[in-house]
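User: What would this chain look like folded?
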Amino acid sequence: MTGIDGIDGRILRTLDASPRATVQYVAEHLGIARGTAHSHIGRLFEGPHLCPVSSRLRPASVGRPLRAQVTAEVDQSTFEGMIGDLSKIPEVVECVAISGASDLAIEILARDADDVYRITQRIMECRGIRRTATSLVLRELIPRRMSQLLD
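Assistant: Here's the prediction, encoded as structure tokens.
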């Protein structure tokens, strides 16, 4: 791991287990000075290691209990405009470029199957989208995790 020392690793494990932990809690939990914890946490957020803090809402809490993964084949010449169009669809919560038969993986949140259909039709209206395929998420088996990579 480039740029992460032993203290950084311990801090990252602590923050992964307790995302709302204060600097004081981290310092006490790890047995380090508050100033040390503060400077390490600041450096982790300023560098490429930690994403900006956000709350991870459960889809059902915003009235959209159904998750789906939409893969899309795209016309590369309209890529920038297409990303702008996709970002205007509120139900699109993530979009990543992928390799393989498709070009994009788009995660959407929906109220029900009819809503999935409506959202995917909106995706198809975006500039440059040629074809999509949709898979419903039935159950989250392993939630997103990272701390195991610090070992």
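The longest helix spans residues 34-46. If you want, I can go into more detail on any region.
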